[in-house]
Amino acid sequence: MSAFWQLRNLFKMRLLWLYLYLMKAILSFLFVLPFYMTFNGYMARSLFSKSIIGSWDLSVILELFSHSEDFIPAYIVMLFIGALIFVILIQFLNGGLYYAVVSGKSASIKRREFFAECGLNFTTHIKITLLMVPIYLVLIPAGMFFVNIIGMAGGTLIGNGAVYLTLFKLLVLVLILLAASTFSDITRATSASFPEKSFGDILKIAADYFRPRLFRLVRLFIITWLPFFLIWLAVESLTLAAIGLSLGIFSIALEFFLFQVSAAARTGQKLWYLITIGSEFRKTNPGRFLPEQVELDLGSK
Amino acid sequence: MEYRLPAEPKLTSFEFQLYPNLYSSENSPYLKKKPHLLHQFLESRKWGGMDIDSVLLGGENFTQSINVNLTRASLIPDEKMELNRKTVRIYFTTYIPASGDRLFQSGDEYMLGDWFPSPALLNKDGTWYNPAYGAFAEPVGAYFQYEVDFILPNIFRVAAPVKSEQTTINDTLSSRHYSFGPAHDFVLALSPRYVIDSSDINGTNVRIYYRDYEKPIVERIKTAVRYTLEFMNKNVGKYAYDDLTYALVNATDAGGVEYPGFVVLASPRGALMATRFYETLVVHETVHQWFYGMIGSDQVEAPWMDESITNYFMHKIFLRYWGRDANLLEFAGLKFSERDNLRALTQAIAAPGAVDDPTYAFVNESDYYGIIYFKGSLALETFDNILGDSLSVIFWQLYFELYRFKHPSREDFINLTGEIAGDNVRKSLEILLGSTDAIDYSASNLENKLLDSVAYKISFQIEKKGELPLRVDYRVLFDNGDSLDGQWAPVYNYAEIELSASAPAKSVIVDPKNIFAIDGDLFNNSISFQTDNRPGVRLSSGLMFMLESFLSFIGGM
Fold it and tell me: pLDDT, tens digit, for every residue of B458-485?
């Protein structure tokens, strides 16, 4: 229930939510621009490309890509560099973000204070990312090895049975990665509470908090993720309906709007989750957010 | 193996093929260009092969006179010896490898393809055609009547092209006799776990040998077989045998392998089966019963004569029974067809090679499949479109009638084309098969000029790449909804076309019916007067959402 109680704090932080979503959207838009500028001229005067208006017709997409042998590798490199910039940018913002959610100042935090915290904790968040990357790199093949052992039992399944088994394997793999991701979140929350501590101490405090609460933290993530998943499902079916209306550019605009609703919901989901675990973390590890003890001068006249 | 030498032509030698020797070492030219298969052999170290224990010719032992060069074995006895009408008897041992595509063992199951010494093809002059097999060549054989006796443990269920006469020898062994032909190969698949589904499909007794866990796929296989038999019987020629057998095996390399009256299918265990890719496999291997099985060809020198033609007929069957736009997949607004798959793979992996190149011209698997299977299929589709519906049926039915249980050559195919459709189509076919140049038709520079209050002067350019000597259709679409069809007879590679009309032109399409399926670029086949940004905007919108989801995944926001 505590997660749902925190929804009101999410709405209090709606401006931050909007900015985070806009940052993602603008960056994606910048990535899409060269794609549009390269291919629109190719498609705009051809009748062959028209079918893409009504469906994701792979004949158009594949035909387009097969004539872009030079563009696609260069574009992938550009995306890789862009993704790297995004990850670094997020590590910068994590300082202010975790400060906001762990301090409980969600709505009242000032811009100057937010960015001061961004700068203060930037290196710690970069360190946490550098620590987590090899952990993910080990966990992914290890997790796949594990799920493949599960899969061997059902290796003869065909069709629906194989689909269910694949989904189950995917779920197990996601849960393994989610546990690691949750540890990363707790470490970042710890760094917000104890910025004066060494990196080793931060990891120790985070691990002590994380170990007994692993299942609860994963459960909290799933609880906050489910509404987003339902929104995503609704968006997917609504976009099909929107395109099915065959209203030309209006259908496309409606589809774009729905896509953005889904993208914004995903940002909101993560923010909601962070507010929830930030609040819980502060209860046991208030660190610098412990209210100052005030000595009351009760003996004075 | 016993083989009766024919009465003519005069023979001075006898040659036969030892196909299992292709699996005998890492130096095999067959394995060298199949890295995946070679890797499996290197892992298992269980190689295959064939030993010739003895050869009797007319009852006399000629084992010492045998000369073996990997798969090619020849026997040249005394020059004065009369070979015609003599019986050759070969005693042999076949070593079954642990991996493979045609001959292999998987646990207690056996796939026995090309497991016996097979006579080479006899030329008209009495010499033998005994090819050296490279990586992409499939076994070549002459048509025989097979009488096969086989003794095996009772625990096995045996998939074969025909039903057997079975005799129990004792509690553990039984003997089987198979009588099958005319055919150029004979194959068996053995498993203690086979379950048999037997049904009459279009007058053919179709038997599917599968394991219990493969039951969910049996009906889909039968549907694909039904469509294929119906289409091929009607449009090419009647399937020659009473039986058609399918065996699901744990293949480690090939998705499917064709034999006369018999189709090997890789087990789809573990597959989600969300698309119709498995049906493409079933249809493809079944069509091989015509182009390979009943109409033989030289699979070393002219692989297009079975693989390209077969892949094209698979495409025709998919169009006929599963529609055009999404015959492989339709899910959540996503459409994918077998034709899209062919075009994409052609563009992605077809190196500049000719469709009629021999197997040994190819240096790797992707080039071979790209040219022979994918580009070849599009070339044959173009050829068939040029023939047109009525001539197409006549051509394929006559081809079947003339060459049933024979081995037509490239020239036979081309000559028949000339006889039926004329020299221009014949020349076009030669270009489609032999040229490495890109073929591309395009329209550009569409302009409308107002001549007076009721007339417009419309002009546009058409261009062609490639040397096809054929007229090409174009269609002008007008603003008022009318259309005008025309034809361009190319003298040069460019032409500017002008016409007058009462309404301005909205678009021009060259080759509107996509007769030239091999056209390298379908975007430039049409040109619109006004730009339409909607396709670009929608694609970019979808890409932007994908990128946002990706950034959320890696950045957590």
Answer: 999 999 999 999 999 999 999 999 999 9
Query: Does this model's pTM top 0.95?
Result: no
A172 touches chain B (CB under 8 A): no
Q: What is the pLDDT, as a whole number, of residue A151?
A: 75
Q: Which residues contact B28 (CB under 8 A, 6 or more apart)?
A: B21, B22, B70
Please count the residues of chain A.
301
Query: CA of B340: which chain A residue's CA is closest?
Result: A59
Q: Strand B243-249: give its sheet, edge to edge.
A: B195-201, B204-210, B243-249, B262-266, B256-259
| Res A300 pLDDT > 80 | no
Where b means 16+ CB within 10 Å and e means fewer, B224-262 reads bbbbbbebbeebbbebbbebbbbbbbebbbbbbbbbbbb
Q: Percent of chain B beyond pLDDT 90? A: 87
Q: For residue A247, is pLDDT > 90?
A: no
Q: How crowded is residue B420: how many other Cβ atoms within 10 Å of its Cβ?
A: 16
Q: What is the pLDDT of residue A109?
A: 86
- Rounded to the nearest angstrom, the gap between the alpha carbon of residue B511 and the centroid of all alpha carbons in its chain is 27
Q: Which of B241, B164, B240, B159 is nearest to B207 (CA)?
A: B159
> Rounded CA gap, B392 and B388, in Å?
6
Chain A, nearest residue to B250 by Cα: A156
Cα separation, A26 vs A82, in Å, equals 12
pLDDT tens, residue by residue, B7-22: 999 999 999 999 999 9
Residue recorded with tokens 């040109």 = B527
Note whether B333 contacts A239, CB cutoff 8 Å.
Answer: yes
pLDDT of A1 > 70? The answer is: no
- Average pLDDT on B45-60 reads 94
d(CA B259, CA B262): 5
Q: Which of residues 263-282 of A touch B (CB under 8 A)?
A: 263, 266-267, 270-271
Chain A residues with CB inside 8 Å of B525's CB?
46, 48
Instruction: Please report the pLDDT score of residue A273 as a whole number.
Output: 95
| Interface residue of A20, A26, A66, A247 to substitute, partner B, most B CBs within 10 Å | A66
Picking from A273, A59, A255, A196, the residue whose alpha carbon sits closest to that of residue B552 is A273
Query: CB within 8 A of B84, min separation 6: which ones?
Result: B5, B6, B7, B8, B10, B11
Average pLDDT, chain B: 94
Chain A residues inside the 8 Å CB shell of B340:
58-59, 62
- In sequence order, what are the residues at sequence separation of 6 or more whose Cβ sits closer than 8 angstroms to the Cβ of residue B346? B370, B374, B375, B378
* Range 138-157 of A in CB contact (< 8 A) with B: 151, 155-157
CA distance A201 to chain B (A): 24
Q: How many CB pairs under 8 A join A and B?
A: 203
The count of residues in chain B is 557
* pLDDT score recorded for residue B348: 80
The answer to whether B525 contacts A20, with C-beta atoms less than 8 Å apart, is no
Cβ count within 10 A of residue B399: 22
Q: How many CA atoms lie within 13 A of A44 on its CB side?
A: 13
Percent above pLDDT 90 for chain A: 74
Distance from the Cα of A133 to chain B's closest Cα (Å) equals: 11
* CB contact at 8 A, A261 and A239: no
Q: What pLDDT sits at residue A295?
A: 72
Q: Who contacts B472 (Cβ-Cβ below 8 Å, separation ≥6)? A: B441, B462, B464, B487, B488, B490, B510, B511, B515, B516
What residues of B are in contact with residue A56 (Cβ under 8 Å)? 332-335, 542
Instruction: Write out pLDDT tens, residues B113-148.
Output: 999 999 999 999 999 999 999 889 999 999 999 999
Q: Which CA distances in Å does A137 have to A124, A133, A148?
A: 20, 6, 17
Print burial letters for A84-116: b (CB count within 10 Å at least 16), e (below 16).
eebbeebbbbbbbbbbbbbbbebeebeeeebee
